[in-house]
């Protein structure tokens, strides 16, 4: 395997007393679409700005393509950023905004015009090339910001909450556009988001951050199916967390046991509502009473209360053929596929 | 009492507009009319003659040109200095910036005459500037041309206009948000390129306001050249004042005043055009 | 490199501060120094020149005139300026900007032109020159300050407050008295003080419209034209303290930061 495109080693950032980012390592491969995901204040934007060269790290080194860029400012790095709120130049037209970087780079004027036109076509903005940013819709401004960064052919494109300012419908459309852009130009994208749905939809790798630390990284499926901590499980998607006890490398849950290496003591078993079967007959089952049943559109949301009072949420496709949902008050036996269960510290 | 909103707005504006009309618009219009009149036996006599303007062009063109050049020098120095100070306050912050801002605001409205005569005292042969330069070992004997020279007029008026120029530029700089500056840096622009391409164009309007003020007020000033300019530095203001007060020739003084205003207007329109040209992006079609 | 640049900026800031303040500081310094020539060495500290000034009957006359002019101008500017600003805040931004551009014209032009226009106008109407001609002449360039400052606050005024007062049954005058005025009072006083500082300091317009009388600035002018009178530094310092003091209070009240 070749060297990673971006290599962070022992990177940290502190402001006086507060440690915004604790020392961490991170590798990003060429062609990756990485999401830095976490709640506000988790240090994800600080980390992105250090990668972009806007903030000098307190410790550690940053390498891009094998070259140490730690001491270089953003103007000397082959990274470009799409800013939160876009940061468009308000006094320049769309075309001038896009042409600014190539002009600074000293590309020749004819080449600049070609680059600008190519970018305008790429982001479908040819019709508004001569307008000022204030005359554009939010989605159009977003695309100008993208084009302005992409025209520099960055080795890494950094995006700071790129879709946060857009309304829901537009956000979905822009997600698709970002994905197809990434496919079309084949670059390496790193974006910051607090929206887990956006991260899962866009990224092929998710880096989850909490309080200045990376708490888990992996494919969206990894992070979703096998959360490494209670925080990750609750931050990404809905999760049931069942208290249990580990003893001798096994966790006792319901009717059975889960193999789980680790020290003895209380643990949490995490399982997603859509992974739970309603008529369980496997080795791991839980018995309880249906106390809630709600139609949610694409799925039914059932709450089954166990004997010890724990409420377990189960999602069931609403269009599923077969038996009607169990009525309220009826008893239900829930089946937990062992592969879908994760054991985390409480 | 229920008045229509439009009527109520009109009533609210009435006192201010009356003051403006009676004590600005009317006297200025009257002064413009007077430029076409003449003096007969020491009395203003209605007429319609262009001879006052002809005399202005005959006798005062040189003074007018000299005044415009001095005012232009003052305006350029003041605007550049004010921009640098505003830049310091806005981007380098620090204690000095805040102290400078407070000093500028506090001295904005006060001490026109006091400032001029303070400079008169400071720039003289025995003045503190020469004393300081001698004590620093930079010069051996006092520089004589510091006072009673065009340089003294420039220094004094730059000092007087600086707070007036600083405030609009600072307001303009505060309107420049952070993200476009970072975006420019991200695209490879160096600090001076960011200043030229992103900062300056965005505060074009306030730069021009500052420049206009720092140009117009000095162009019409007569007190500063009188007190620190010496016998050689006669600006248009001195001639206008002399025509009104010394020679009792209001029509010609007024003609000179309006010619000066017109010339200033032309300079400002040109400056505006040049500024616009210099600060308009030249790429992207 | 960054440290070097920072040091250069600091040096520049210090130089600017010295340039801006040293003339004013020196005037106050020499008003308290024995040396009658106002040159170095200054000699010992003394209040002598203030004594000389206070023994001068002209000073008290000029002070009285300045007080009358400044207070009347402040009062009328406040009323006319506030009424105009409130009216402008209720109109569209286009009209408001147009009116403001027009009404601030007198502070953009060289004062000499306005002074001569006013003097010529008064004399052609045969009006006797005096404080009654000085006061309206000042208003035309002091009211723009009140209008600008009060309008700036009114433009950002949360109109929901006014709407809720109306919703609770208050009439226009009650809303102004009980809701708007208490909120804008500091700004109003601050703006008025600015107008007063401008009026107190004015020399050119006063000089051409006062006729024979005297205010503090025209008294300074008179002293400058006569043989050296060392009490001019004392007079200058008093004018400086008055205008700068007024400005500082105004800045504090309006929270104006440039």
From TrEMBL, chain A:
<dbReference type="GO" id="GO:0043190">
    <property type="term" value="C:ATP-binding cassette (ABC) transporter complex"/>
</dbReference>
<feature type="domain" description="ABC transporter">
    <location>
        <begin position="6"/>
        <end position="236"/>
    </location>
</feature>
<dbReference type="Pfam" id="PF00005">
    <property type="entry name" value="ABC_tran"/>
</dbReference>
<dbReference type="InterPro" id="IPR027417">
    <property type="entry name" value="P-loop_NTPase"/>
</dbReference>
<protein>
    <submittedName>
        <fullName>Spermidine/putrescine ABC transporter ATP-binding protein</fullName>
    </submittedName>
</protein>
<dbReference type="GO" id="GO:0005524">
    <property type="term" value="F:ATP binding"/>
</dbReference>
<dbReference type="GO" id="GO:0015697">
    <property type="term" value="P:quaternary ammonium group transport"/>
</dbReference>
<dbReference type="InterPro" id="IPR003439">
    <property type="entry name" value="ABC_transporter-like_ATP-bd"/>
</dbReference>
<keyword id="KW-0547">Nucleotide-binding</keyword>
<dbReference type="GO" id="GO:0022857">
    <property type="term" value="F:transmembrane transporter activity"/>
</dbReference>
<dbReference type="InterPro" id="IPR013611">
    <property type="entry name" value="Transp-assoc_OB_typ2"/>
</dbReference>
<dbReference type="InterPro" id="IPR008995">
    <property type="entry name" value="Mo/tungstate-bd_C_term_dom"/>
</dbReference>
<keyword id="KW-0813">Transport</keyword>
<dbReference type="InterPro" id="IPR017871">
    <property type="entry name" value="ABC_transporter-like_CS"/>
</dbReference>
<keyword id="KW-0067">ATP-binding</keyword>
From TrEMBL, chain B:
<keyword id="KW-0812">Transmembrane</keyword>
<comment type="similarity">
    <text>Belongs to the binding-protein-dependent transport system permease family. CysTW subfamily.</text>
</comment>
<feature type="transmembrane region" description="Helical">
    <location>
        <begin position="95"/>
        <end position="114"/>
    </location>
</feature>
<feature type="transmembrane region" description="Helical">
    <location>
        <begin position="12"/>
        <end position="39"/>
    </location>
</feature>
<feature type="domain" description="ABC transmembrane type-1">
    <location>
        <begin position="64"/>
        <end position="273"/>
    </location>
</feature>
<dbReference type="Pfam" id="PF00528">
    <property type="entry name" value="BPD_transp_1"/>
</dbReference>
<feature type="transmembrane region" description="Helical">
    <location>
        <begin position="254"/>
        <end position="275"/>
    </location>
</feature>
<protein>
    <submittedName>
        <fullName>ABC transporter permease</fullName>
    </submittedName>
</protein>
<dbReference type="GO" id="GO:0005886">
    <property type="term" value="C:plasma membrane"/>
</dbReference>
<dbReference type="InterPro" id="IPR035906">
    <property type="entry name" value="MetI-like_sf"/>
</dbReference>
<keyword id="KW-0472">Membrane</keyword>
<keyword id="KW-1133">Transmembrane helix</keyword>
<dbReference type="GO" id="GO:0055085">
    <property type="term" value="P:transmembrane transport"/>
</dbReference>
<dbReference type="InterPro" id="IPR000515">
    <property type="entry name" value="MetI-like"/>
</dbReference>
<feature type="transmembrane region" description="Helical">
    <location>
        <begin position="60"/>
        <end position="89"/>
    </location>
</feature>
TrEMBL record, chain C:
<protein>
    <submittedName>
        <fullName>Spermidine/putrescine ABC transporter permease PotC</fullName>
    </submittedName>
</protein>
<keyword id="KW-1003">Cell membrane</keyword>
<feature type="transmembrane region" description="Helical">
    <location>
        <begin position="67"/>
        <end position="88"/>
    </location>
</feature>
<keyword id="KW-0812">Transmembrane</keyword>
<feature type="transmembrane region" description="Helical">
    <location>
        <begin position="231"/>
        <end position="251"/>
    </location>
</feature>
<dbReference type="InterPro" id="IPR000515">
    <property type="entry name" value="MetI-like"/>
</dbReference>
<feature type="transmembrane region" description="Helical">
    <location>
        <begin position="174"/>
        <end position="198"/>
    </location>
</feature>
<feature type="transmembrane region" description="Helical">
    <location>
        <begin position="204"/>
        <end position="224"/>
    </location>
</feature>
<dbReference type="Pfam" id="PF00528">
    <property type="entry name" value="BPD_transp_1"/>
</dbReference>
<feature type="transmembrane region" description="Helical">
    <location>
        <begin position="139"/>
        <end position="162"/>
    </location>
</feature>
<keyword id="KW-0813">Transport</keyword>
<keyword id="KW-1133">Transmembrane helix</keyword>
<feature type="transmembrane region" description="Helical">
    <location>
        <begin position="95"/>
        <end position="119"/>
    </location>
</feature>
<comment type="similarity">
    <text>Belongs to the binding-protein-dependent transport system permease family. CysTW subfamily.</text>
</comment>
<dbReference type="GO" id="GO:0005886">
    <property type="term" value="C:plasma membrane"/>
</dbReference>
């Amino acid at each position: 395997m070749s060297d990673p495109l971006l290599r962070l080693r022992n990177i940290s950032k502190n402001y006086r007393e507060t440690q915004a980012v604790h020392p961490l390592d991170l590798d990003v491969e060429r062609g990756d679409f990485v999401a830095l995901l976490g709640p506000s204040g988790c240090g994800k934007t600080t980390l992105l700005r250090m990668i972009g060269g806007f903030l000098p790290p307190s410790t550690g080194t940053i390498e891009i393509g094998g070259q140490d860029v730690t001491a270089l400012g953003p103007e000397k790095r082959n990274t470009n950023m799409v800013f939160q709120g876009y940061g468009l130049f308000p006094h320049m037209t769309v075309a001038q905004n896009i042409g600014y970087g190539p002009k600074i780079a000293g590309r020749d004027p004819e080449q600049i015009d070609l680059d600008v036109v190519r970018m305008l076509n790429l982001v479908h903005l040819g019709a508004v090339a001569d307008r000022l940013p204030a005359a554009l819709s939010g989605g159009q401004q977003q695309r100008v910001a993208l084009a302005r960064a992409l025209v520099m052919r960055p080795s890494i494109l950094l995006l700071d909450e790129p879709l946060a300012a857009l309304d829901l419908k537009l956000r979905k459309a822009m997600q698709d556009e970002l994905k197809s852009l990434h496919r079309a130009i084949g670059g390496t994208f790193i974006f910051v988001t607090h929206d887990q749905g956006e991260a899962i939809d866009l990224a092929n790798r998710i880096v989850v951050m909490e309080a200045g630390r990376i708490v888990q990284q992996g494919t969206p499926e990894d992070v979703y199916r096998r959360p490494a901590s209670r925080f990750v499980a609750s931050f990404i998607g809905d999760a049931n967390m069942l208290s249990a006890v580990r003893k001798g490398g096994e966790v006792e849950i319901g009717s059975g046991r889960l193999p789980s290496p680790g020290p003895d003591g209380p643990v949490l078993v995490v399982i997603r509502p859509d992974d739970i079967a309603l008529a369980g007959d496997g080795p791991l089952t839980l018995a309880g009473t249906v106390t809630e049943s709600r139609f949610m559109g694409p799925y039914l949301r059932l709450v089954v209360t166990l004997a010890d009072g724990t409420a377990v949420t189960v999602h069931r496709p609403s269009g599923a053929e077969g038996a009607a949902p169990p009525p309220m008050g009826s008893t239900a036996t829930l089946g937990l596929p062992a592969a879908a269960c994760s054991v985390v510290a409480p | 009492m229920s008045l229509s909103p439009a009527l109520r707005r009109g009533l609210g504006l009435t006192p201010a507009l009356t003051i403006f009309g009676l004590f600005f618009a009317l006297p200025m219009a009257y002064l413009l009319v007077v430029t076409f009149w003449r003096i007969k036996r020491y009395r203003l006599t209605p007429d319609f003659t262009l001879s006052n303007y002809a005399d202005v062009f005959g006798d005062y063109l040189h003074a007018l040109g000299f005044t415009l050049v001095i005012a232009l020098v003052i305006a350029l120095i003041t605007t550049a200095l004010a921009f640098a100070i505003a830049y310091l306050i806005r981007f380098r912050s620090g204690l000095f910036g805040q102290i400078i801002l407070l000093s500028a605001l506090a001295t904005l409205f006060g001490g026109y005459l006091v400032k001029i005569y303070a400079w008169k005292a400071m720039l003289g042969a025995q003045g503190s500037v020469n004393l300081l330069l001698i004590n620093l070992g930079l010069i051996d004997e006092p520089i004589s041309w510091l006072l009673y020279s065009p340089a003294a007029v420039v220094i004094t008026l730059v000092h007087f206009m600086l707070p007036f120029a600083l405030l609009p530029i600072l307001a303009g700089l505060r309107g420049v948000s952070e993200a476009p500056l970072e975006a420019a840096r991200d695209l490879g622009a160096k600090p001076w390129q960011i200043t030229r391409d992103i900062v300056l164009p965005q505060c074009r309007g306030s730069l021009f306001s500052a420049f206009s003020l720092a140009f117009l007020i000095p162009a019409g000033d007569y007190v500063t050249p009188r007190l620190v300019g010496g016998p050689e530095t006669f600006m248009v203001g001195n001639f206008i004042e002399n025509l009104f007060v010394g020679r009792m020739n209001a029509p010609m003084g007024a003609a000179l005043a309006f010619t000066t205003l017109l010339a200033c207007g032309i300079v400002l329109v040109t400056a505006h055009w040049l500024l616009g040209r210099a600060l308009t992006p030249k790429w992207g079609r | 490199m960054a440290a070097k640049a920072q040091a250069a900026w600091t040096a520049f800031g210090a130089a600017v501060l010295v340039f801006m303040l040293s003339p004013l500081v020196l005037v106050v310094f020499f008003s308290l120094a024995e040396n009658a020539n106002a040159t170095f060495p200054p000699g010992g500290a003394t209040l002598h020149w203030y004594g000389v000034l206070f023994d001068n009957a002209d000073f008290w006359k000029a002070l009285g005139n300045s007080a009358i002019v400044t207070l009347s101008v402040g009062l009328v500017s406040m009323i006319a300026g506030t009424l105009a600003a409130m009216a402008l805040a209720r109109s569209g931004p286009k009209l408001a900007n147009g009116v403001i551009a027009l009404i601030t014209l007198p502070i953009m032009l060289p004062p000499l032109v306005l002074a001569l226009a006013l003097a010529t106008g008064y004399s052609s109407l045969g009006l006797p020159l005096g404080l009654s001609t000085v006061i309206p002449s000042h208003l035309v360039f002091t009211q723009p300050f009140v209008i600008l400052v009060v309008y700036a606050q009114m433009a950002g005024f949360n109109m929901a407050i006014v709407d809720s007062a109306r919703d609770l049954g208050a009439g226009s005058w009650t809303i102004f008295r009980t809701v708007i005025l208490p909120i804008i009072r500091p700004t109003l006083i601050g703006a008025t003080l600015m107008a007063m500082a401008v009026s107190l300091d004015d020399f050119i317009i006063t000089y051409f419209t006062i006729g024979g009388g005297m205010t503090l600035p025209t008294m300074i002018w008179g002293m400058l034209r006569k043989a050296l009178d060392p009490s001019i530094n004392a007079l200058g310092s008093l004018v400086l303290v008055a205008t700068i003091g007024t400005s500082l209070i105004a800045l504090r009240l309006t929270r104006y930061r440039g």
